[in-house]
Amino acid sequence: MAYTSVAYIIALPAATLVTLWRQRRGILVREETATTQNEDSGTELIAGLRFLFESYKPSSWYWELVEMSRKVIVTSLLILVGQETRSYIGLTLVIAGMYGTVFCWIHPLQEAFENKLMSTSLTVTVVNLVIGAVSRIPAENLPAPKDSYIDTVMFNVLVIGANNVVIGLIAGKPDTLSFIIP
Fold first, then answer.
1. Mean pLDDT of the 53-61 span
2. Are 124 and 34 contained in the same domain?
3. Domain span holding position 37
4. Residues 76-110: pLDDT tens digits?
């Protein structure tokens, strides 16, 4: 059953990549012209897979597959390292940092605000991982804190503050809530 699951995790994104790769000219043409008349089987396939690339720039038609690969690596492959090790947090931090850097360099989303929101979200993820890595430092290697209560409060403020940045961005842009509140 595990081998079947691994095959599914690899085969589905690979098949999607091959299909989108074969149809990439149609994706670019369809995005530029936005006409749906005279649909043949190629444009029907593009319309069916539209959810994979519609929020991305035409030149970044593949980005959803990059996103899926990152999620599979972080949620599935890194488990092999062992969740209770510093290597797990370190590798996750490296992957999140590299992905965030590439995302901010390419800006694959069409909407500027969505790019900003995703960049902020990825930054918060990296900050949370750094806080997690720091919290995993063994206490015996650190000098004794003068006030452990202050350390605990600072730790909580950092985590809550970093995560509220994303919520603050969404709350600061009222038109982004229009999909929730009609």
1. 83
2. no
3. 1-54
4. 776 776 666 667 777 888 889 999 999 999 999 98
Q: List residues bridging with 56 in a β-sheet.
A: 109
Burial, 114: exposed, middle or buried (Cβ in 10 Å; 0-12, 13-18, 19+)? Answer: middle
Distance CA 145, CA 154 (A): 13
Q: Evaluate whether 49 touches 19 at the Cβ level (below 8 Å).
A: yes
* Tally of CA atoms within 13 A in the half-sphere of 146 that contains its CB: 0
56 by DSSP, 3-state: which?
strand
Q: Model-level pTM?
A: 0.66
CA-closest candidate to residue 126, choices 179, 161, 162: 162
Which has the higher per-residue pLDDT, 3 or 138?
3
| Tally of domains in the chain | 2
